[in-house]
Specification:
Chain A: This is Tectonin beta-propeller repeat-containing protein 1. By secondary structure, chain A is mostly beta strands. Helices cover 12% and strands 34% of the residues of chain A. About 17% of the residues of chain A have low confidence. In chain B, helix 6 packs across helix 7. The chains are: A mainly beta, B alpha/beta. Chains A and B meet through helix 9, helix 10 and strand 33 of A and helix 1, strand 1, strand 2 and helix 7 of B.
Chain lengths: 1194, 275
């Protein structure tokens, strides 16, 4: 899981963030500002500074925030000039928007704020609906407004072309001031701010609701904040029936505010169409006479704090009932409270001003169990060098802009002092520039803060007393301290470190002075630092007493994701825990532990020993004879013959040692037929795959052999419980692997595939698999399961394997195996991680119109169910629809889905003349039925050899295929984000398969599929179905330089592309497989598309140019299957298209990658039997209804 | 990249080729052929030599047969040490197969324990496991197991069932992550040059300062002579399962992966060959 940040402000106005993966507060150093309030969401953090201005901190992302400006140039033909910009008086503007109604010359486009920059100059868009246009990008029509075509006709009188220019948001990872444009309302500075609302709507992307309260008690709403406009546009006042002092806005539609008198206001009418809401309702304070001072809301919770510091939880709050039903008093005395992601709660204690985390908050127990204090040190309590290093690791806060203006003198002295103090051991890093600039603290109007600032002055005077006990003897040994610091045992709790650390903390100059005067090398630095010390004195010394824990003023968890399996190291910084975690950190730093010399040596010696002691003596008798071992159980079996039904059977696995010492086994199924006892058996070494088929009614799995794969008819069995099924599957799987001598992690050449349930399978190819002309039939391939849940998986022959989950999360293979239900020995231990995935389940609400009542849920008797699945054939109500399998649990409520293809009206309805028909988003007179889609998210948590690659969600990925003996160092890896951005991963090697960072490759339009070939030829498919070739990509220039538009096959929208050594294959939306003709080294774009097959869902072309597809409707001798792995036969260097298909495992398969398999079989020159067959033979398909062929389901 | 799991397999499936010859002191009816066998390193001599016994009994008169015992180059072999330890201690760096002499008379009462049946071996094996768990987990894990679980460990060893054994032994190898290892490492150091049977002391896997302790740290404390300075010629070989792990190998890792089925890390220290 990627780390996320908890933000907090201490009583001196300094902003800190704490990473869920971290163990210390990182100070967001800012030269000028102290802050009063922060409100964080995942992508940014808003704040009110003590100058009463609002500031925004947008986290840098590897995909930049860029916005496309467009304008149209319009021209009309006249006999004299031909096409010219002289238009008729009735015509549109010469430069206009797409409708022609708005005048938009190029020069009128201004950057929205100084935080934006232009990416390049204006240029002409030559892409028209997925097709390249002639030079100039003109499209022609008879007249404005009309349908434009890319070809000029005799009657084309007008033409237009589109100019585009990108602007980019540049102020990332720094605080930027949001200009307060409302001069007339001043002076009425802002006093509170809250950010939320991102779950209300996905359109426009990144839409946020930002509410603010002014000192005079007015409420303001910031309009138009979204991904493309992070700063929003204007403040709009929202009338309130009283004076508001504080406001809180949840991720959903909850907005609550606190009135000056201590009552609460609840905003009603907040929704997709109206983020601002429509009206206020008053809710009484929980205890009469004691008003509320603070409120915090989440998705389904409201917490409040009253004047007597009591904490209250509001019962029964949800989006239908934003007011809730009643208050429950909670334990604890707090001054403020905040609700973060997944309704987790944070608070600041009244007594100790410490940050508290509410433990045990789950969807079923929203009020949690207990308060737990977050006790981790702050970075300024540690050495500067370590702080800066770790702040770089953890999403970091370093500042641009204002801080860089820091005065030269103080920076120099600072640096000098640092060098002196570090005794040459710590090289001053450029981050020294981050050290705060000398300043005098402002006296703020916030009485709370000034009160505490005055407290601090008291401490300063106390400071003159020499530091307490522990620090004195160590002062003389700065070097030793540094060494000790490096050792894990010395990580200290905040109370201790307060006393020990300051001697060499460069942030803290007052104490530095103490050290410099007493330390051995202090004299030289003394003079230079004295002057700055004088100015630093007030503002910069550590304001805490030696044993005093930090005091906090404000906390915001809106960007902090804590889930039940999240491991937080925040709560106990007693020496032992700190020690343990630093040990973990240490062991992490020497990972991959596998590479440690001692481990390598043990592996080598053991295999050497086995060779020495056993190789020449294998003919000796074994001292212990292997006996037969039987495991029995009862199960249900899907009877092979008609009438098909589940029958109770006895199930037994008999294991014994095979002839060559490897284990083997036989499966027996004992059943009764006509009162006669019979049995079936199956040899374990013939089993090709075991497929779990979890559904909501039975815990079943399917067993295939090569023969049953051909028949499309597996043996299907059902266990009584899920646990029993997993036990059997794990046992059978180990048994199958043993019988084939397969153990340990998948090889680098492995072929990976994924079923439509997200289960991952891997097969070890042999040299004969791609032999020509007689390859191993792919029905004989043995597949074993690997834990985890993915939708897409890609690999290459250097062992780099990446996957993408249903929720678009990117995962990289750790090199392990097992996980999931594979326990113990069937699973590696050190590289198995928790993996989660989220997907939506959809149901449809159907209605029919009648003249009396309009649209109602009373349909005709012949109609579909009023609540159904997409086809309408199955009844699916909100209550009876279950998650896809017991592994999944609901994580949200049913919500209307507006993002349906075809569009919807404001209530999410789509209209049609009748069921089933094509639906459209607006009601017409001819429509008599309507439907809308409801979505509910469910989540799966499992384990597997996968590690998350945060933070960008992906939709496709491709890895450079390498030859058999390739020595590529940097592996090219390209990906497409779920928003369609093209990305190139840097730093991917076979040792670091996860790489280091993303490089964004600019494009004019969103993409959906990408593939890179063996010689860095990159092909991509845009969302509009057109193909592009990326020019000049090489190992030296991994991102290439420009895109070449390749026309699609006529009338087809392409869907997916795969490029092997030289071959380029694409699949279109109608399931056709296309081969690119005429691709040569000098002309890599090729010349034309050639149709190869239909019924293809996906294609994977490997480093040998082998072509594998997922095909639909593959006919077997008993049944047919959709989603079947097929391999192209007869592919040779001179015949890259092959001639026919070979059918492998299916159905229910969704994805395959053969791009790791670079194992070439020795070529035998033999006349191929199939030479005289027709060049293109379509997939052998059928339209019969399928019965057993798709046990996995599609 | 090999997985640590593979080490467990390699350790379990380690075999020593042995050639059993009947002692010339024994009286036989006809000449006894030597008997060749692959012995599991992790098992016990008397547990895996039923075949040897049968083989030699065929040429002997019943009245000449007493308890069978083994000897290598004059040293009686202690059956209650794992076979691999016996081999490393007495016969490493010699030519294979390992020539073991079989006796049926003159049982060396002073050197060897009697082993009347497999239940004696089982009792010895289980007491070792219990002792090891006392060191590792204050006996908490082994006491939580049921009788049948104990049986599974023993049956796994007796029948050479790796999966069966490790399905249970896994639990004995667990430890709370925050502690960084077992309470104490169960280990025994054997040497040929001393009359002491073996060295065994309390030794923690992590130092009080939180450092991970290594094999070198262990030897430094218990057998400093085994660690030679850089310029010195090597005087001793430190053998575990026939290999010499590097001194920087963490002792916790060794205990988890190179322990014998009795959960002890058996370390043999032998004089370095002088070639």
């Amino acid at each position: 899981m990627p780390s996320s940040l908890l933000w907090a402000v201490d009583v001196y106005g300094r902003v800190y963030s704490l990473s869920t993966a971290g163990q210390q507060w990182e100070h967001c150093r800012d030269a000028h500002l102290e802050f009063k309030r922060v409100t964080a969401v995942q992508q940014c953090c808003w704040s009110i500074a003590c100058d009463h201005n609002i500031y925004l901190y947008v986290h840098a992302s590897e995909v930049p925030i860029r916005y496309q400006e467009e304008t149209y140039e319009n021209q009309r033909w006249n006999p004299v000039d031909g096409f010219s910009d002289r238009l008729l008086p009735s015509d549109r503007w010469q430069w206009s928007d797409i409708t022609g109604l708005k005048h938009q010359p190029l020069g009128d486009f201004q950057l929205p704020s100084e935080n934006w920059e232009w990416e390049a100059d204006w240029y002409i868009d030559e892409n028209f609906g997925g097709e390249p246009t002639e030079k100039g990008g003109w499209t022609y029509a008879i007249d404005f407004p009309a349908t434009y075509t890319k070809d000029k006709k005799w009657n084309s009188c007008v033409r237009r072309r589109r100019w585009i220019r990108y602007r980019r948001y540049k102020a990332q990872d720094t605080w930027v001031k949001i200009p307060s444009e409302q001069t007339e309302s001043l002076p009425d500075p802002f006093n509170d701010i809250t950010c939320g609302g991102w779950e209300i709507t996905e359109e426009p992307r990144g839409c946020l609701a930002l509410w603010a309260v002014s000192l005079q008690g007015k409420v303001w709403f910031r309009c138009d904040i979204n991904h493309h406009n992070p700063e929003g546009s204007v403040w709009e006042e929202v009338p309130v029936p009283g004076e508001v002092v504080q406001i809180s806005c949840g991720p959903g539609d909850l907005v609550w505010a606190v009135l000056w008198e201590g009552h609460l206001l609840v905003r009603e009418g907040v929704g997709r169409d109206c983020l601002k809401g429509s009206s206020w309702v008053t809710v009484e304070s929980p205890s009469p006479g004691v008003g509320v001072v603070h409120v915090a809301v989440g998705v389904n919770v409201v917490w409040a704090v009253t004047k007597d510091h009591k904490v209250w939880f509001r019962r029964g709050v949800n989006s239908h009932n934003p007011c809730g039903s009643g208050w429950i008093g909670m334990v604890g005395e707090m001054v403020m409270i905040n609700v973060g992601l997944s309704d987790q709660v944070w608070a600041i204690g009244f007594e100790d001003r410490a940050v508290y985390f509410r433990q045990g908050v789950t969807a079923s127990e929203l009020s949690g169990k207990a308060w737990k204090v977050v006790s981790v040190p702050r970075d300024s309590e540690r050495s500067h060098s370590s702080a800066s290093a770790s702040s770089l690791q953890s999403a970091g806060c370093f500042f641009g802009g204002e801080v860089r203006l820091q005065s030269q003198a103080s920076m120099l002295s600072d640096a000098d002092a640092e060098t002196e103090r570090a005794g040459g051991e710590v090289v001053p890093t450029p981050e020294i520039g981050d050290a705060p600039k000398p300043r005098i603290p402002k006296v703020t109007s916030d009485s709370f803060i000034s009160e505490l600032v005055s407290d601090r002055e008291g401490q300063i005077s106390r400071r003159d007393v020499p530091p307490a006990g522990p620090s004195i003897p160590e002062e003389d040994h700065p070097e030793k301290e540094l060494e000790d610091r490096a050792s894990p045992a010395q990580v200290l709790s905040p109370s201790q470190s307060g006393g020990v650390d300051p001697q060499w903390s460069n942030v803290d100059l007052e104490e530095a002075q103490t050290h410099l005067t007493s330390g051995p090398g202090g004299d030289a630095a003394e003079t230079s630092s004295l002057s700055s010390v004088a100015t630093y004195n007030l503002a910069l010394e550590e304001p805490y007493g030696l044993d005093e824990p930090p005091k906090w003023a404000w906390v915001s968890g809106g960007g902090c994701l804590v889930e039940c399996h999240t491991q937080l190291n925040w709560f106990n910084s007693s020496t032992s825990t700190a020690l343990n975690s630093s040990m973990q950190a240490m062991s992490l730093s020497i990972t991959p532990a596998q590479t440690a010399a001692w481990r390598k040596q043990i592996f080598e010696q053991l295999s050497e020993r086995s060779k020495r002691e056993m190789e020449n003596f294998m003919h000796y008798e074994q001292a212990i004879e292997q006996s037969v071992w039987v495991k029995k159980g009862t199960m249900q079996w899907w009877r092979d013959w008609k009438p098909h039904k589940w029958v109770d059977v006895q199930f037994a696995l008999e294991q014994f040692s095979g002839v060559e010492g490897n284990k083997d086994g036989i499966l027996f199924i004992y059943y009764t037929f006509n009162d006669e006892k019979k049995y079936l058996h199956m040899f374990i070494n013939e089993v090709t795959i075991l497929v779990p088929v979890l559904n909501d009614s039975k815990h079943t799995f399917a067993i295939y052999t090569a023969e049953r794969t051909k028949q499309r008819w597996p043996m299907r069995l059902a266990a009584a419980t899920e646990l029993e099924m997993h036990d059997w599957l794990a046992l059978l799987s180990v048994s199958c692997c043993d019988s084939r001598g397969i153990q340990g992690p998948p090889s680098k050449q492995a072929i990976w595939s994924v079923t439509c349930k997200g289960d991952i399978f891997v097969s070890e190819p042999t040299k004969e698999l791609e032999a020509s002309p007689y390859p191993t039939p792919c029905a004989q391939m043995f597949w074993r399961q690997v834990g985890g849940h993915l939708r897409i998986i890609e690999s290459n022959s250097l062992g780099v394997v990446w996957g993408i989950g249903y929720d678009h999360t990117a995962w990289v293979h750790t090199g392990g195996y097992g996980g999931g239900f594979f326990q113990g020995l069937a699973s590696s231990t050190d590289n198995i991680y928790t993996q989660t995935d989220v997907k939506s389940v959809y149901i449809y609400e159907n209605q029919r119109w009648n003249p009396v009542t309009g649209y109602t849920n009373r349909g005709l008797p012949t109609d579909r169910y009023m609540w159904s699945n997409a086809s309408g054939l199955k009844e699916c109500t909100k209550n009876n629809t279950k998650p896809p399998s017991p592994n999944w649990t609901w994580v949200s409520d049913w919500t209307i889905d507006y993002a349906v293809p075809g569009g919807t009206d404001r209530e999410g309805w789509q209209y049609a003349a009748d069921f089933p028909a094509s639906y459209h988003g607006n009601k017409t007179l001819k429509d008599f039925v309507r439907r809308r889609r409801w979505a509910r998210k469910c989540k799966l948590t499992t384990t597997g050899p996968w590690q998350e690659v945060p933070p960008i969600p992906l939709s496709d990925i491709t890895i450079l295929p390498c030859g058999p003996k390739s020595t590529v160092e940097q592996v090219s890896l390209w990906a497409i984000s779920n928003k369609g951005d093209i990305l190139c991963r840097l730093g991917v090697t076979s040792l670091t398969p996860g790489g280091s960072s993303w490089l964004h490759v600019g494009t004019d339009q969103p993409f959906k599929s990408i593939s890179i070939g063996a010689v860095h030829q990159v092909w991509a498919i845009a969302k509009d179905g057109s193909a592009f070739y990326r020019g000049s990509v090489s190992a030296q220039n991994p991102a290439g330089d420009c895109w070449y538009h390749i026309p699609s096959p006529t009338g087809q929208k392409l869907k997916q592309v795969s490029v092997g050594r030289t071959s380029v294959y694409t699949v279109d939306e109608n399931g056709n497989l296309w081969y690119r003709h005429g691709v040569t080294p000098s002309y890599p774009q090729g010349s034309s598309w050639e149709h190869i097959s239909n019924n293809v869902r996906k294609v994977s072309v490997g480093p040998l140019d082998q072509v594998w597809v997922i095909a639909d409707k593959v006919q077997g001798s008993h049944s047919l299957s959709c989603g079947t792995v097929c391999r192209r036969l007869g592919v040779l260097p001179m015949e890259p298209k092959g001639h026919s298909w070979d059918y492998g495992i299916g159905g229910g398969w969704d994805h395959i990658t053969v791009r790791g398999n670079a194992m070439e079989a020795p070529r035998i020159v033999m006349p191929s039997l199939t030479d005289n067959q027709t060049a293109t033979r379509p997939l052998q398909t059928s339209n019969q209804p399928e019965m057993n062929g798709n046990p996995v389901g599609c | 990249m090999a997985d640590d799991k593979d080490v467990l397999r390699d350790v379990w499936f380690g075999r020593i080729p042995a050639c059993f010859t009947l002692s010339p002191e024994e009286t036989t009816e006809r000449e006894a052929e030597p008997y060749y066998l692959l012995l599991p390193r992790v098992s016990y001599l008397t547990l895996v030599t039923d075949k040897v016994k049968k083989h030699f009994l065929r040429v002997m008169k019943t009245e000449d047969v007493e308890e069978m015992w083994f000897e290598y180059e004059g040293t009686p072999l202690k059956w209650h040490y794992p076979i691999g330890v016996l081999f490393d201690l007495h016969a490493s760096n010699t030519a294979l197969p390992w020539n073991v002499t079989v006796h049926f008379k003159n049982f060396p009462e002073r050197d060897l324990l009697h082993c009347s049946s497999n239940s004696v071996i089982e009792a010895h094996f289980m007491s070792c496991i219990k002792e090891a768990d006392a060191l590792k987990h204050k006996s908490q894990v082994i006491n939580d197991m049921q009788k049948k679980d104990h049986k599974q460990l023993w049956m796994g060893l007796q029948n050479d069932k790796f999966d069966q054994f490790w399905a249970m032994n896994r639990k004995l190898m667990e430890y709370p992550t925050e502690e960084g290892g077992f309470r104490y490492i169960p280990f025994r150091i054997y040497q040929t040059t001393s009359d002491r049977p073996f060295i065994q002391k309390l030794f923690r896997p992590v130092s009080p300062e939180g450092h991970t302790l290594t094999l070198g740290d262990l030897l430094k404390e218990l057998f400093p002579a085994a660690i030679c300075a850089e310029d010195e010629p090597k005087r001793f070989q430190v053998m575990i399962h026939g290999i010499e792990p590097l001194l920087e190998t963490p002792i916790q890792w060794l205990s988890e992966h190179l322990s014998h089925p009795d959960n002890f890390l058996h370390i043999s220290i032998i004089p370095a060959p002088s070639d």
